[in-house]
Amino acid sequence: MERNLPNILVTGTPGTGKTTTSEMIANVTGLEQINVGDLVKSKQLHEGYLAEFDTHILDEDKLLDEMEDMVKEGGKVVDFHTCEIFPERWFDLVLVLRADTQPLYDRMEKRGYNQRKLQENIECEIMQVVLETARESYAPEIVIELQSNTIDDMESNVDRVKQWLDAWKTQHGKQ
């Protein structure tokens, strides 16, 4: 089934600006933002809590069942740090946000992340784990790596997405 509007996945290591960027994209384009972390908590789509990493244990099946109808029509900006769990058919564009270690560290520290979670996420970013996973999970032409160190970076990224969306609409006769 062809969607009326595309779905965009915004992913990256925690602290790279996924939620802020997704909100900005939604505001500029009129697409609807889905913050998967909030959805998991509000709909109890988890199997409990892992205190050591200060995170919920995701129930992937429940999450995918919950989201299937949400993304079917298109027009969604999905914001989550994990990307490989989602079916490839759900997304027309996958944005992988990247940040230098210093701004990333500062953002996570400000959020009160414990030292273990902070260290693991910094290592994850340095090793490009999310980027490599996205490249393995989706068609290479839809995976875009974007720097997200500053508000200027975020605004530039949002402008690029707006241009991409306009081109998508033209290409699919959805003006």
TrEMBL record:
Location of the region described as NMPbind in the Swiss-Prot/TrEMBL record? 35-58
Q: What is this protein called?
A: Adenylate kinase isoenzyme 6 homolog
Keyword vocabulary terms for this entry: ATP-binding, Cytoplasm, Kinase, Nucleotide-binding, Nucleus, Ribosome biogenesis, rRNA processing, Transferase
Catalytic activity reported: ATP + H2O = ADP + phosphate + H(+); AMP + ATP = 2 ADP
**How does the annotation summarize its subunit structure?**
Interacts with small ribosomal subunit protein uS11. Not a structural component of 43S pre-ribosomes, but transiently interacts with them by binding to uS11.
Q: Where in the cell is it found?
A: Cytoplasm; Nucleus
Recorded source organism is Circinella minor
Q: What general EC class does the enzyme of this chain belong to?
A: transferase
Role:
Broad-specificity nucleoside monophosphate (NMP) kinase that catalyzes the reversible transfer of the terminal phosphate group between nucleoside triphosphates and monophosphates. Has also ATPase activity. Involved in the late cytoplasmic maturation steps of the 40S ribosomal particles, specifically 18S rRNA maturation. While NMP activity is not required for ribosome maturation, ATPase activity is. Associates transiently with small ribosomal subunit protein uS11. ATP hydrolysis breaks the interaction with uS11.
Query: What GO MF terms are annotated?
Result: AMP kinase activity; ATP binding; ATP hydrolysis activity
| Biological process (GO), any one | ribosomal small subunit biogenesis
Give the EC number: 2.7.4.3
Tell me where it mainly resides. Answer: cytoplasm
Annotated region described as LID, given as residue ranges: 110-120
Question: Under the cellular component aspect of Gene Ontology, which terms does the record hold?
Answer: cytoplasm; nucleus
Q: Which SUPFAM superfamilies match?
A: P-loop containing nucleoside triphosphate hydrolases
Q: Where does ATP bind?
A: G15, G17, K18, T19, T20, R111
Superkingdom of origin: Eukaryota
What family does this belong to? Belongs to the adenylate kinase family. AK6 subfamily.
